Amino acid sequence: xxxxxxxxxxxxxxxxxxxxxxxxxxxxxxxxxxxxxxxxxxxxxxxxxxxxxxxxxxxxxxxxxxxxxxxxxxxxxxxxxxxxxxxxxxxxxxxxxxxxxxxxxxxxxxxxxxxxxxxxxxxxxxxxxxxxxxxxxxxxxxxxxxxxxxxxxxxxxxxxxxxxxxxxxxxxxxxxxxxxxxxxxxxxxxxxxxxxxxxxxxxxxxxxxxxxxxxxxxxxxxxxxxxxxxxxxxxxxxxxxxxxxxxxxxxxxxxxxxxxxxxxxxxxxxxxxxxxxxxxxxxxxxxxxxxxxxxxxxxxxxxxxxxxxxxxxxxxxxxxxx
Amino acid sequence: xxxxxxxxxxxxxxxxxxxxxxxxxxxxxxxxxxxxxxxxxxxxxxxxxxxxxxxxxxxxxxxxxxxxxxxxxxxxxxxxxxxxxxxxxxxxxxxxxxxxxxxxxxxxxxxxxxxxxxxxxxxxxxxxxxxxxxxxxxxxxxxxxxxxxxxxxxxxxxxxxxxxxxxxxxxxxxxxxxxxxxxxxxxxxxxxxxxxxxxxxxxxxxxxxxxxxxxxxxxxxxxxxxxxxxxxxxxxxxxxxxxxxxxxxxxxxxxxxxxxxxxxxxxxxxxxxxxxxxxxxxxxxxxxxxx
Amino acid sequence: xxxxxxxxxxxxxxxxxxxxxxxxxxxxxxxxxxxxxxxxxxxxxxxxxxxxxxxxxxxxxxxxxxxxxxxxxxxxxxxxxxxxxxxxxxxxxxxxxxxxxxxxxxxxxxxxxxxxxxxxxxxxxxxxxxxxxxxxxxxxxxxxxxxxxxxxxxxxxxxxxxxxxxxxxxxxxxxxxxxxxxxxxxxxxxxxxxxxxxxxxxxxxxxxxxxxxxxxxxxxxxxxxxxxxxxxxxxxxxxxxxxxxxxxxxxxxxxxxxxxxxxxxxxxxxxxxxxxxxxxxx
Lengths: 322, 291, 282
Description:
The complex is a heterotrimer.
Chain A: E1 16-25, E2 28-38, E3 43-47, H1 54-61, E4 69-74, H2 79-87, E5 90-93, H3 105-115, H4 120-133, H5 149-160, E6 167-171, H6 179-194, E7 198-203, H7 206-212, E8 215-220, E9 223-228, H8 230-237, E10 241-246, H9 252-260, E11 270-272, E12 277-281, H10 284-293, E13 300-305, H11 308-316
Parallel strand pairs in A: 3-7, 3-8, 5-6, 6-7
Antiparallel strand pairs in A: 1-2, 1-4, 8-9, 10-12, 10-13, 11-12
Helix pairs in contact in A: 3-4, 8-11
Chain B: H1 21-48, H2 51-72, H3 92-123, H4 126-132, H5 137-165, H6 177-186, H7 189-195, H8 204-218, H9 234-239, H10 241-253, H11 260-289
Chain C: H1 2-7, H2 22-25, H3 32-45, H4 48-68, H5 86-107, H6 109-118, H7 120-125, H8 131-159, H9 171-190, H10 196-212, H11 224-232, H12 234-247, H13 253-281
């Protein structure tokens, strides 16, 4: 993969460097020794199912959770010694909003800016800009309690930007939002990316990872399974296209076995899911023709391009969203 | 092979130049130094949303209590309320006023040390948000306490003025009841430390209120001298911050009524409780936020 | 919402519902009992220490004020003017106060919390239960708790020799009446509440009642106008009612007290029903 994505050291010093990073709670290993670097201006993702250790990793990077073992430096600083210095450079969008429900939207930005010791005038000016950026100008005086989920999320992002951070950490930024709210949020994050903000985000949505990440690691059970750009990961761990065929839930298993036996599809992968059979092929239409020629009659069929979901399935044998 | 998308790190849009160590230190300097003040600022802003409730309560409560105890109940009191001070005979109102003031501070403190702490850590976890900024867990605790100090000063000062209006404060030294009230409130910091350990709300606060706070309040020589209680209940008073604070307050309001060493014991005991609970609470919150 | 849930009730009654009957039918499925059962089940899974410690609260008050403060005080009488000890004077008042506090807590804080945070009621309303079932259920649950506490306190009073007449037995139903009155009023008020801070106002309204309603000293210490004002407050009637029963000072005033609470319950329930309809149905 290094042929495609140049290692970050060649470009400039990484803003985040983790090596053998571990987090253990009692007997439970949440993060089992992971390595990654994030370059300045890069948009880096951790993709994995719930409970993979993504949030724990984010908290360690956010300098609020002490690592159990391994190396970690953010902007060249060790979080154990320089937590406040690191956090002064970060913007954090946690998985659970923790805005002050009793305050108005704008007031939330004002009080948060003060935590960084910024002058009131600077904060007030930035708060107005950020409310505009988050498309919340007309909600400036609304109590947070009265905002919709998507609005709260955008306000949290605005709050995370109040200190003009070098790195923005986003933990599951769009979980629980409706499709329209997600798209608005992606658009805002894309703008930040264009402006050169380093983004680090966790997600269990492959479309989100594909939209926002230059490069990502696939995480499962506290371990990194693969690393690369979305395109490279798909290229490396999946075929160009996927044929999805459905035969009805009680016939899928039998069909999968018969498809596996079809000559010409050999070497390609076949996944049997409860509701459908996935046939990985460079040319999906050809694969479909071969399936039909073999005498099988799918109820429905669909040819699509491979996605990160397929990569994850390949690497772990499980679906991202369970 | 298709060309790599323009979003590889090498082609990333102009990233900012790396910060120098001095810049990094500088950016966190004010937070390191003034963090607790920023926290208190936030809490005060939230409190200002309820200023009318607060002001009405802060004025109405002392009026009612002083009227009920000092004027109403006093008509029934026939016994002596203990040694008087330099000014001779002490009226029941004068006796009870300092105790009511420190009790008011205790009420504010115990409310904030229980609900206030769990609000920030759990119900509306603003403390987690604060901790994601340069602020540390210890600073958040100190900031919360600073805010409580402001709340208590407001409450206690109003109480003091109402006592003056009732003519129940013989000595000018009575102004010292304001710091004594603060001390009385902060002597309950161990409650804050306990609250910070609560993960699931299973009625612990109700139990705490009934089993710890209430007996320490009722058997504390506030509305009658401790000596009136049966001997086996008196140790409760000696342990109670309220007894120490009430007696301390009485020394300033109309004292001295006790040997100087005992007054010193009150101060040391209250300070020790405040400092111990404060440090323990910092440690517990720090550990809880670091998960 | 409830119009739909009405049709799904097991009793076929709902299918014949006329528009005019919508008023109470849609609010009340006659199933308050299931709310009580749910409440009891929830109580079982929660902390029994909380329930047990509820008993000690008035006992602590009695020890502190009756014994400690009482050693100072002479010249208190029962409602008919016979001299009694301060402990016997204050114990029935503490009982009435704890009935008020318990009922108000259960019908305000508790209901408010469930309404706004627990989202418990939405779940219940999605079943065949109407809002009035829930309201009645909560009140009955509160009364059950109050009854248990009250009984224990009365036993403690008897042990300490503070029940001066056999009529003290009637203090228990009187206690439930008082609690019902405060709970139905509390529930009505809670339905108007929007934030926690509104709850503080309830506390603030209860404080003068607690301090001034002949709880700690007789009404006679006040000038006449203040006496009239206090006699208009519900707690005064509760304190006098229970004090009359535990001291055996039986007279026609008892009927006035009982009537006061009957009216209070009726008004509270009417308001609660109206408000619940506004909140959940319209």
